[in-house]
Amino acid sequence: GAGVSQSPSNKVTEKGKDVELRCDPISGHTALYWYRQRLGQGLEFLIYFQGNSAPDKSGLPSDRFSAERTGESVSTLTIQRTQQEDSAVYLCASSQTSGLAEEQYFGPGTRLTVT
Amino acid sequence: AQKITQTQPGMFVQEKEAVTLDCTYDTSDPSYGLFWYKQPSSGEMIFLIYQGSYDQQNATEGRYSLNFQKARKSANLVISASQLGDSAMYFCAMREGSDFYGGSQGNLIFGKGTKLSVKP
User: CA–CA separation, A66 vs A79, rounded Å?
Assistant: First the structure.
């Protein structure tokens, strides 16, 4: 079946503009995660959605970052007033449940460049 | 404090030889899971292997095995018979548990990664 998809694959924006990044998880996956990967670094957790529960926003770096998810489908990560330090690859992942042993399936990422 | 530590920024291995990538972790949860992911230059994240904190035996998946030493809080990845296609970044990650029934706190906590280069 189809994997996790993300759009756009690349985004170049000017400092101060808002951007929206989209993630389509695998159908039937109740859990959805956003991570950020700066160049040459590991992945940093941003936000996690599980079913209809309130999202875990503990990884969001500032109030310029927000995310929404409609039911158990598409999620949008919004970055307002972008800064150069926001330049990174934003990765979305989904898993069938949030169980301890559940593998997370990652999308190809959106490469964001803030000029 | 770092929850996942990968002390080898880069490693070289000769093709067909085995290589060990180090990972130590820090948690006070009795229930946790450890994962290894591979990230080739194309950027995709590929799941390799999983070890649960209560698993009695070390996990194995084909050429990958996980050397789990719970008392030392280490979860090293061993790749046997290295191939040129194994050249990539390798990330160790942990998910902490939320209960004794297999629930979790959701997100993975990643290390900084090790870049493995396989020489022909």
Answer: 7
**Is B110's CB within 8 Å of A91's CB?**
no
| φ/ψ of residue A85, rounded to 5 | -70, -10
* CA separation, residue A88 to residues A94, B14, B75 (Å): 20, 32, 28
Task: State both tokens at A51.
Answer: 């079913």
pLDDT, position A1: 57
Q: What confidence tens digit (pLDDT) does each residue in A21-48 have?
A: 999 999 999 999 999 999 988 999 999 9
Average pLDDT over residues B72-89: 97
Nearest CA in chain A to B10: A40
Q: Between B43, B47, B102, which is nearest A89 by CB?
A: B43
Question: What is d(CA B77, CA B23) in angstroms, rounded to the nearest whole number?
Answer: 8
Burial class (CB in 10 A: 0-12, 13-18, 19+), A103: middle
Chain A residues near residue B45 by CB distance under 8 angstroms: 43, 91, 93, 106
* Burial call A69-99: b when 16+ CB within 10 Å, e when fewer: beebeebebebeebeeebbbbbbbbbbeebb
The pLDDT assigned to A72 comes to: 81
Q: Could B33 and A31 be called an inter-chain contact, meaning their C-beta atoms sit closer than 8 Å?
A: no
Residue B103 has pLDDT above 70, yes or no: no
